[in-house]
Design goal:
A two-stranded antiparallel ribbon has the order 1-2. Helices cover 64% and strands 1% of the residues. The radius of gyration is 25 Å and the shape is globular. It is an all-alpha fold. Helix 4 packs across helix 5 and helix 17 crosses helix 18. The longest helix is centred in the first third of the chain and has 26 residues.
Length: 499
């Protein structure tokens, strides 16, 4: 081949190789592409502005009773008996900045990234539906306040949504790399909040339902290896099996909303945990963990010793097996708090107050063990800790929080959209619909705390983006995109397809 022809062939080959990159650049610079996503970009911009107000109005962060415990683990790396160390590792990554303001900034970015993930996966629906699905996570005032708190929920929400988004967006046989990423995200979520454990089984079951046994096994292996490794670390530290040492204590506190020792007839060693007051006169469940007059706290030693946790677990199991209907009614009652229109004060004014943007500068969290580790927090910040309120930014946020939130009945309506849409559509598809993954994950995240601990407003927020994603995915079937692809390549569209 002459030299000139070889050069022409080389140039043509390079041109073909560069074509995908040039197409991507052209799409990025195409104004019409940005206009197509205009509504979402407007919502994203507003969500960014609101988070900037939080950074300006409440500097550098808002504190919660759990916050100090997480900071202690940064400097004393060992498993905590009550909370896994995932969020502490997140704080450790940001420690070189020595600024809690950097932590809240990172959490606000995670909130924005969660909204972007929801929009990306919900693109099968009409764009206005996909945009609407992002509004609760991007614009809800309580979501923004939660991101500004030094707690694990924002990180947990992002990890779970990222895993579910990867799973729900698959259209062909899943690549091994994607499955490994899902497993690692679920492991990280579980080691951030233990409520993530059932999600590992849930997403593995999704692959089994689709006849993908190998991906299911790969996901389980990838997710369980880090979890088992953490469990081994926990065992080496405390000679106890598990990820935390408080499961029995929390379940005991949960059952005290209905446990009747006259009906249970517990043995003498368990009877010391009984409360003679009738259930309707008892305090919220969490008081049985932290209150000084709790039967559990009055026992010798710390509340979370293996002996105390085992004793509390035995009492809880006896209460549930002796009064299964009362337990079910209690779980439904706690779950029902999720769907109330207002926001009644619960479980107590102190905890409820942490979910509001404060008017005056808050002091340090008051209940034990919240203040344990304050010196470590000062070491992390390399200076004084606290919250400085700066007006008028803080006032604008407080006014916004008084008006903009997702009411409970609206969340219930969002959860009902997918099953109702499935009944109306009555499609004969044998494979499970894509909305089933985020919908099931949202239900698990709502039910598990009500069954194992108690209702808390911050436990609800991580489930909201998943519920919204499920609703968006159920609005319009995937066949619309398939038809659009056939139009693009000039294929005929079957006449029996309804868009």
């Amino acid at each position: 081949m002459p030299e000139r022809q070889r050069e022409d062939v080389r140039v043509m080959a390079e041109t073909r190789a560069d074509r995908p990159a040039r197409r991507s650049l052209a799409r990025v610079g195409d104004p019409s592409r940005w206009r197509r996503h205009g509504w979402f970009l407007a919502v994203l911009a507003l969500g960014t502005a609101l988070r900037a107000l939080a950074m300006l109005g409440y500097r550098p962060a808002l504190w919660f009773p759990d916050s100090y415990t997480y900071v202690v683990t940064v400097f004393r790396p060992r498993p905590d008996l009550v909370r896994p160390a995932g969020y502490s590792m997140f704080l450790k990554l940001l420690e070189p900045f020595h600024a809690f303001g950097m932590v809240t900034a990172a959490q606000h970015l995670l909130g924005l990234a969660t909204g972007a993930l929801i929009y990306r996966v919900a693109r099968r629906a009409p764009r206005w539906v996909a945009t609407l699905a992002t509004v609760p996570v991007l614009l809800d005032a309580y979501q923004i306040e939660l991101e500004h708190l030094l707690v694990s929920d924002t990180l947990f929400m992002f990890l779970v949504v990222a895993a579910v988004a990867l799973c729900a967006s698959e259209r062909r046989a899943p690549a091994a790399g994607r499955v490994v990423a899902i497993g690692l995200l679920l492991a990280a979520a579980t080691l951030t909040r233990t409520v993530g454990q059932p999600l590992i089984v849930l997403l593995a079951a999704w692959y089994v339902l689709r006849g993908r046994l190998r991906p299911a096994g790969l996901l389980l292996a990838t997710a369980l290896v880090p979890v088992i490794a953490y469990g081994a670390w926990f065992y080496a530290t405390y000679q106890r099996v598990g990820l935390v040492g408080a499961n029995g204590v929390f379940l005991y506190a949960r059952t005290m909303s209905f446990a009747d020792c006259a009906r249970m007839d517990p043995p003498p060693d368990l009877r010391v945990l009984c409360d003679p007051r009738p259930p309707e006169r008892r305090p919220p469940s969490q008081e049985y963990i932290w209150a000084k007059d709790s039967p559990l706290v009055l026992l010798p030693g710390i509340t979370f010793t293996k002996e105390t946790d085992d004793l509390a677990g035995r009492f809880a199991r006896l209460a549930i097996t002796s009064q299964p209907l009362d337990y079910a009614a209690s779980v439904l009652s706690e779950l029902g708090r999720t769907f109330t229109w207002g926001r009644p004060v619960y479980p107590d004014p102190e905890i409820y107050g942490y979910y509001q943007f404060p008017v005056t500068e808050p002091g340090p969290p008051g209940r034990y063990p919240a203040q344990v580790g304050a010196d470590y927090a000062k070491l992390y910040e390399r200076g004084a800790i606290g919250t400085e309120i700066v007006e008028p930014y803080a006032g604008w946020l407080r006014a916004y929080q008084s008006l903009v939130r997702l009411p409970g009945p609206v969340l219930l309506g969002v959860l009902l959209v997918p099953p109702v849409a499935a009944v109306i559509r009555r499609s004969g598809r044998r494979r499970p619909a894509p909305w089933l993954v985020p919908w099931s994950a949202a239900v698990v995240l709502l039910v598990t705390p009500a069954a194992a601990a108690e209702f808390d407003y911050r436990y609800v927020l991580p489930a909201v983006p998943l519920a919204c994603l499920a609703a968006a995915l159920s609005i319009r079937p995937d066949v619309r995109r398939q038809c659009e692809s056939k139009k693009e390549f000039g294929d005929d569209i079957p006449r029996n397809v309804q868009l």
